[in-house]
């Protein structure tokens, strides 16, 4: 049998050939890939031996498979044999050397390969190299093919399915790489049995293999519990292998499998992204990963080809392609490129404005959710609010249930620290996770949440955290004036129920949606007595003003001794009477935060990360904490986005915000009532604290001899302040 | 008389009209200006009363004149009366209100205006508004013109030349705005006497006026002693008024005046810019000002029109226009736009690669200099090294003689803090200079220099600093292997001579030019005894590794009590034996610094700014200091630029550098000898420490029983290490 290209037919190749030199997304992609591959082809071929994780050898093998994968297709598309020659020669070198390398010494629980320190990477190598081989095999002599098959591919297949058989059927994101690699290599070798076992599991009994994986790894919403960073890593073999199955096992009807789980999970992944295309760094992740990642490019192309509606490719998908400025070099990508070209001819493609979405978690979707609310301001800028009220994200999850992040004007404002790891930076512990990831980045205090008594949620116990999850209360995004979500976390601190309700409010007098945040701590189920509640905010930029006096410490000590507090310098602090105001400048935008608690004591503490960091592993970043001591407590705060600063052009407008105050009127098991005052209006928000409330539940709450009543989860009242009466009140 | 456009003839207007809607630089400029002006025209007209510096009122008046200035010309170019109507109506409002405003209350030594807190801003207003008026006067009724002339322009002219006559003839950068405003307004009113007094001074005796200013403000090199930040501010009225004089007083032959001082000083300004177009923040300046500033756009256009060589506009000027992506909306800008279009048709315009240049200071060029050395790496990236060995930059100058900054790969690596000021941010002290500007940003320790005994240069005494300057030793930039400059500062610390010699070396095995820095402190003229020398480095990014043990402090104290040390936290420190290595990651690039001193003791101290900063006025930025105690001392260090890191794509290459060591072989009054070892070669550099050396001076220096000899200022020897013998040495 003569191996044929696995992912391309002759007629598809001809269509791609016609894109050469054009300025379509596909044309640009081909040109960019040619440039990259040719630059790499200038270097002498190298198949190095063992090296450190993140070191030269690791990176070189990764580059080798990356460029072989591109070169294989470029050979077909351009018909230029130089690309095929590159693949042939490099494969020959691997065939010569591969079996001379022993297995790496095992350093942790991951099985090791001959090229890489963990077989995950060897799976990647095999998947991409098999695809490349399938493109150029027709140009190779029988002898050349035999060397590659016998001295690389067959030993690898044997390793993955026999030596490491126990690992092959594991339901895990790494497992997708394993089955995709084995299935595709089997096809390339004409050994269909490997494709069968990859799709259906070694024992063909649904306990392993690709179909079991995609059935079990994702929640009904499509969300992947390890978060978007790991999701985008798994999405690449998922989509590539789905396309292979689509072409070579049409009987599976893979794109309709389980109500279209492939499309569903791609959509879920895309719907987490910030408006600029970056993924929120949820659950122990990089802060810089975004939709331009190659895996997401493949996913967007596959989605465009197989899940476009009858009206064609969705505007938001086109918007994402605009950010990516590239497509998958494949007929799926050509579909997207063509749609983009057609749509561009009619009007300029805008940035994506993905709808708000609540993504449930757990196999049945009953283990809480991740909430994503988006709202546009008058100029079209998108504010995005993210709250985690789902599951703990497996072994390396953060302890941040009810944590939020907030993004607008192109930047994350209430920020996620992200993981403490310098990926592939060999002198930084081989690019692996650093100790400070556990001691700081995953702790509750490192997030935008409330830390009780200087402890971490679930006491930093992963097993305990895995056994609990958030409880969704409401997710309401239909209104134009107010969007919001609320959830409980009643199992994360012993003796406490916690409820967080976050909203975006469109007020006529404000430039951007106002973030409103109510965080309630209920200690009546065993947490009686006074507690310390630290409501923390990770920001970036320069403090511009406050409405209270504070003292900058003359010498710096840590804020505490454990649970992340040992890494925070106590930079400055001040007592607050009533509502605290903290205003800062982040790049070109001013932010003003006003916060209060229901207790009559409060303190603002300004911190900076970097204490007890003997190897400079942490970034030095500021935060401020509203600390309040009491029994059951409600924190209420708003964050206003306003003005513009440009240092280069020496412009500054609206450096002070419009919001004047926020006040806790009261709270009880029934509900919470707060009042916001701006220069123009008085805004009352009443929300339900009853976990079993519905849209028709009646609420009545008596506070200060006044009865507040509303139906359903919450109520918003906006009253314009009469300038006359406002004057009289003074 | 009917007022005609001052800066445009009818035929020029026709040429500009033809650019409408094109994608030339001029076409794009016009479109962008239309968009900006039209957005502003949407707002209701407003001529507000007194306000705070940096506040709404201040900004509004500034916006008003900015957009009137553009609208006047847009009316002529587009022939659309809406732009003229905007100017007419806004001028009418000013005419109605101007005299009803009293003069601002004077808060410092600056005279105040009716619109602004200092007349500098009122000068700007008058210059731009007079130009706008000249464009639209023909569309106004006699009554409208009369109101503007009698109720704004004449009172302003009177204020500037009578009430504040004592200030009008001052030779100062602010004075250029004064004379330009008065001269141009006089022309607009047909009162040529104001033009005469603006050009020749009130008394027409060369002690004041534009010609005296441009003769005296700039050094023969064209350098302006307050640095590029203030220079770019002065360059706008300089160029605008020069063009006015060119057109209305051709007898002055302004562009050839004093051997072309206008062109000379424009070129000097441009030649200071970093490769990305930003200006080094020399002398108490903003870090974000660059050639895209409107003043520099005007200057580049004027230069292109009047100083192009017979071969047309210089490639570097075109490169700057590429960064600016705009031109002055004037025939001068059209000249540049046309040249750009013609050159683009032949080949892609590259980024500018300005030649290395030494810009002398002082009226005769004898007060030291500012040195700028640029070198390209193999991929075309430009490294730029800047050293200050000139004058103290007037009242707000930094105390940083012999300070350096270093830039490559698109970022400043050895960094200048810049001023401590949030320009126009009203809640930050009205946008004015903050206390920490004096107590930190201008102190020697805030710069990349050596601080002796925790004191500031010249004891932070401005008068003393104004009386001394650096002494240039050599500036050599002809060689391809090594470029360098050296200077003395013998009057800045009592009892000490200081010499700094900085080089960029092109070594075959390195990706980028290697920065070599020799800083010698000679205490033999009265500074006998042991002293503490702090050789400091302001960097940005994350420490990756060191070659010595250090202790991160468990509590933080300030590094000292005065001269800026009170603002530095002592974060960590460690003793060093031999050569210290500090490696860090700044964005996508690794930097490795190796440093040693001739003393047998050394310590590295890691600091962070922000101590004793009660209002968060300082930015939190890291630095490290090599501290060495001894008598006369030589510091020798190299900074290697290497590798690539991309978090998003999880790529890391060459995280460790090639340079292995640097060693001080010895130093004396005759010379210094150091040796650098890389993985491939041993590099010996010998340099002259004799202030009266020439290119032919013979140097002999005996160190460790070996004689080092060379002719001229320095000598470079590169010896490949024999791999055999290197092996044997182990």
Describe the overall structure.
Chains A, B: It is found in: Periplasm. Chains A, B: It comes from Vibrio renipiscarius. Chains A, B: Residues 69-273 form the Alginate lyase domain. Chains A, B: Keywords: Lyase, Periplasm, Signal. Two copies of one chain form a homodimer. With 730 residues, chain A is α+β, with helices and mostly antiparallel strands. In chain A, the strands form six sheets. In chain A, strands 7-8-9-10-19-16-15-12 form an eight-stranded antiparallel β-sheet, with no helix packed on it. Chain A has a six-stranded antiparallel β-sheet with strand order 6-11-18-17-14-13, with no helix packed on it. A five-stranded antiparallel β-sheet of chain A has the order 1-2-3-4-5, with no helix packed on it. Chain A has 18 helices and 27 strands. Chain A folds into three domains: 1-217, Glycosyltransferase (Alpha/alpha barrel), CATH 1.50.10; 221-354, Glycosyltransferase, CATH 1.50.10.100; 388-662, Beta-galactosidase, Chain A, domain 5 (Distorted Sandwich), CATH 2.70.98. The interface between A and B is large, with 56 and 56 residues.
- What structural class do helix, strand and pairing data of chain A support? alpha+beta
CATH topology of the largest domain in chain A: Beta-galactosidase, Chain A, domain 5
Q: How many individual helices of chain A?
A: 18
Number of domains of chain A: 3
Supply the CATH architecture of the largest domain in chain A: Distorted Sandwich
Strand order of the largest sheet of chain A: 7-8-9-10-19-16-15-12
Approximate shape of chain A: elongated
- Which radius of gyration of chain A do the C-alpha atoms yield? 28 Å
- Oligomer category: homodimer
Provide mean pLDDT of chain A, rounded: 95
* DSSP helix fraction of chain A: 25-40%
Query: Beta fraction of the residues of chain A?
Result: 15-25%
Low-confidence runs of at least 5 consecutive residues of chain A: 726-730
Domain Heparinase II/III-like C-terminal (chains A, B): 371-630
Keywords (chains A, B): Lyase, Periplasm, Signal
Domain Alginate lyase (chains A, B): 69-273
Subcellular location (chains A, B): Periplasm
């Amino acid at each position: 049998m003569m191996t044929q290209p696995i992912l391309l037919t002759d007629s598809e190749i001809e269509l791609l050939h016609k894109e050469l030199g054009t300025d379509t997304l596909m044309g640009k992609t081909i040109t960019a890939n040619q440039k990259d591959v040719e630059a790499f082809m200038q270097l002498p071929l190298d198949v190095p031996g063992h090296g450190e994780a993140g070191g030269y050898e690791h990176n070189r093998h990764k580059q080798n498979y990356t460029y072989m994968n591109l070169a294989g297709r470029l050979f077909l598309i351009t018909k230029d044999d130089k690309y095929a020659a590159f693949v042939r020669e490099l494969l020959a070198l691997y065939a010569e050397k591969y079996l001379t390398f022993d297995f790496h010494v095992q350093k942790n629980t991951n099985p090791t390969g001959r090229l890489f320190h963990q077989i995950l990477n060897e799976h990647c190598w095999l998947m991409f190299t098999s695809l490349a081989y399938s493109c150029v095999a027709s140009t190779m002599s029988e002898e050349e093919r035999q060397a590659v098959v016998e001295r690389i591919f067959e030993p690898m297949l044997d390793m993955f399915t026999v030596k490491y058989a126990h690992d092959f059927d594991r339901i895990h994101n790494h497992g997708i790489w394993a089955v995709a690699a084995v299935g595709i290599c089997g096809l390339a070798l004409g050994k269909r049995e490997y494709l069968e076992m990859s799709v259906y599991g070694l024992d063909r009994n649904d306990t392993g293999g690709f179909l079991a994986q995609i059935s079990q790894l994702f929640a009904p919403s499509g969300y992947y519990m390890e978060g978007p960073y790991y999701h985008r890593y798994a999405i690449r073999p998922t989509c590539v292998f789905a396309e292979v199955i689509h072409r070579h096992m049409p009987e599976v009807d893979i794109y309709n499998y389980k109500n279209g789980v492939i499309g569903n999970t791609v959509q879920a992944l895309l719907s987490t992204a910030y408006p600029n295309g970056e993924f929120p760094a949820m659950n122990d992740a990089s802060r810089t990963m975004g939709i331009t990642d190659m895996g997401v490019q493949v996913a967007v192309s596959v989605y465009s080809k197989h899940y476009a509606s009858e009206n064609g490719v969705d505007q938001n998908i086109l918007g994402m392609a605009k950010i990516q400025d590239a497509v998958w070099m494949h007929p799926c990508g050509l579909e997207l490129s063509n749609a983009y070209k057609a749509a561009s001819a009619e009007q300029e493609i805008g940035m994506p404005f993905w709808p708000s979405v609540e993504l449930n978690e757990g196999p049945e979707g009953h283990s809480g959710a991740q909430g994503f609310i988006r709202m546009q301001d008058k100029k079209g800028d998108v504010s995005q609010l993210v709250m985690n009220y789902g599951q703990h994200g497996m072994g390396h999850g953060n302890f941040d249930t009810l944590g939020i992040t907030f993004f607008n004007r192109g930047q994350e404002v209430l920020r996620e620290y992200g993981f403490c790891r310098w990926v592939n930076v060999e002198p930084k512990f081989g690019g692996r996770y650093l100790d400070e990831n556990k001691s700081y980045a995953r702790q509750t205090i490192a997030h935008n949440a409330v830390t009780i008594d200087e402890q971490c949620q679930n006491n930093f116990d992963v097993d305990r955290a895995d056994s609990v999850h958030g409880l969704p209360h409401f997710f309401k995004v239909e209104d134009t004036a107010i969007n919001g979500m609320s959830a409980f976390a009643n199992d994360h601190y012993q003796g406490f129920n916690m409820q967080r309700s976050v909203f975006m409010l469109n007020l006529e007098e404000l430039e951007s949606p106002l973030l409103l945040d109510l965080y309630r701590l209920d200690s009546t189920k065993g947490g009686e007595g006074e507690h310390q509640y630290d409501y923390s905010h990770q920001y970036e930029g320069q403090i511009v003003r406050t409405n209270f006096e504070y003292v900058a410490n003359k010498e710096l000590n840590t804020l505490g001794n454990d649970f992340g507090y040992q890494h925070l310098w106590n930079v400055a602090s001040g007592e607050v009477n009533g509502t605290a105001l903290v205003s800062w400048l982040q790049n070109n935008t001013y932010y003003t935060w006003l916060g209060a608690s229901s207790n009559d004591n409060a303190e603002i503490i300004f911190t900076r990360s970097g204490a007890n960091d003997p190897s400079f592993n942490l970034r030095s970043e500021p935060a401020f904490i509203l600390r309040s001591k009491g029994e059951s407590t409600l924190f209420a705060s708003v964050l206003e986005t306003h003005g513009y600063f440009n240092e280069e052009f020496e412009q500054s407008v609206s450096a002070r915000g419009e919001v004047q105050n926020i006040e806790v009127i009261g709270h009880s098991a029934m509900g919470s009532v707060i009042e916001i005052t701006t220069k123009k209006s008085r805004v009352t928000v009443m929300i339900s604290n009853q976990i079993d409330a519905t849209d028709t539940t009646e609420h009545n709450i008596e506070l200060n001899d006044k009865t507040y009543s509303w139906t359903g989860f919450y109520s918003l009242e906006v009253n314009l302040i009469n300038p006359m009466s406002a004057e009289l009140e003074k």
